[in-house]
Write a structure and sequence with these properties.
With 351 residues, the chain is α/β, with parallel strands linked by helices. It has 11 helices and 13 strands.
Length: 351
């Protein structure tokens, strides 16, 4: 293998030609058609509210029992919601954040940039090891849960989530729930984490295929966190794009049939790629949500590089996600490309 350091930025946005990308996790499906109908008549070009458009926050409040529009902040994607939350928590002089591994590769850098220290609790086949969780949580300032998860596609068991709710509430620590894939679950309904210091993070990127519009939000009953986030956002990005927010408002009011239709497609693709990986003899656990699968691979760095350079196939290195013996595949692409990509991986393995 050529001497080269593999980093995510080498592959993000790379597309076209003969390339098949199992890399970036962005839906290839279209957003709700209604969101484009507002563009010709939109005429708002002044600064918006830092906290976010009132109509969007009011609509979100109808989806979260016991909340109102003041419990929400509209952000530039879920990434800004996480960044602002951690920087708010880190302002008090550091502390530890407990994250389950494998994890989304941006978590540790975001946490560290806020002056906090990421520590990791282990999973078994993508499921949180609750005994290991108990051993590590006591001296933490916050816990971060991602269910359904990137890169595993796993959903955490409801009993585990309830125990995490109770433990964090008893300890008085902040529980952050990254739920950007909450509408993409194949096995059951999403379980919404609750508590006095819970921060729920979500976005319109995955459910409504609006990644490039950069509209996310955070929700919390802890108004001190909400107020501190608004204060920080005032001096950083200010308001989130107001046209994109209006499009998000329209998407939030779209028919549930749209989401159900998307979910059927994701389930079909999940089943297709899992069948293909089984035929290749690769070891993995079957995703229960999101659109990722994390198979084991001999010499993952060599595989990722050679698949890209010799077979025009983009995969992501498991080491970026805290899974050094694996690679991550996103099945956010049509079935023809999934099948062709699997064929190319087979040719690589046959060598």
């Amino acid at each position: 293998m050529e001497e080269i350091r593999l980093v995510p930025s080498m592959f993000i946005g790379v597309d076209g030609g003969n390339i098949i990308s199992f890399g970036s996790g962005q839906p290839d499906l279209p957003p709700p058609k209604e969101i484009f109908e507002i563009v010709p008549r939109f005429n708002g070009f002044k600064y918006g509210l830092i906290q976010g458009n009132a109509n969007l926050r009011e609509t979100l409040a109808t989806q979260y029992r016991g909340s109102d529009e003041n419990n929400f902040v509209i952000t530039n994607g879920a990434s800004e919601a996480l960044d602002l939350t951690f920087r708010t928590l880190g302002n008090g002089g550091g502390g530890k954040v407990l994250v389950h591994r494998p994890y989304y590769y941006s978590y540790p850098p975001i946490i560290e940039a806020a002056g906090l220290e990421p520590v990791f609790t282990e999973t078994v086949d993508g499921k949180i090891d609750i005994d290991d969780f108990h051993e590590k949580v006591n001296d933490c300032k916050a816990v971060l849960i991602n269910s359904p998860g990137n890169p595993t596609g796993s959903i955490q068991d409801i009993n585990t989530l309830k125990e995490i709710e109770n433990v964090t509430e008893d300890l008085g620590i902040v529980l952050i729930s990254d739920e950007v894939y909450k509408d993409l679950i194949y096995e059951r309904e999403n379980y919404l984490l609750r508590g006095p210091h819970v921060v729920t993070v979500n976005s319109f990127s995955k459910t409504f295929a609006m990644c490039g519009f950069r509209v996310g939000f955070l929700y919390s009953n802890d108004r001190s966190i909400v107020d501190n986030v608004i204060g920080l956002k005032t001096h950083t990005s200010m308001n989130t794009n107001i046209l994109a927010q209006e499009m998000a408002y329209t998407a939030a009011n779209a028919s549930r049939d749209y989401v159900d239709g998307q979910l059927r497609i994701w389930r079909e693709r999940r089943d297709l790629i899992c069948e293909g990986l089984e035929d290749l003899g690769l070891d993995f656990w079957k995703p229960e949500g999101a659109f990722y699968v994390l198979p084991k691979m001999k010499d993952p760095a060599k595989a990722v590089w050679n698949l890209f350079k010799r077979y025009d196939v983009i995969t992501y290195l498991g080491d970026w996600f805290g899974a050094p013996d694996r690679i991550r595949l996103s099945y956010a692409l049509n079935t023809d490309k999934i099948e062709e990509g699997l064929n190319r991986i087979k040719r690589y393995l046959d060598e």
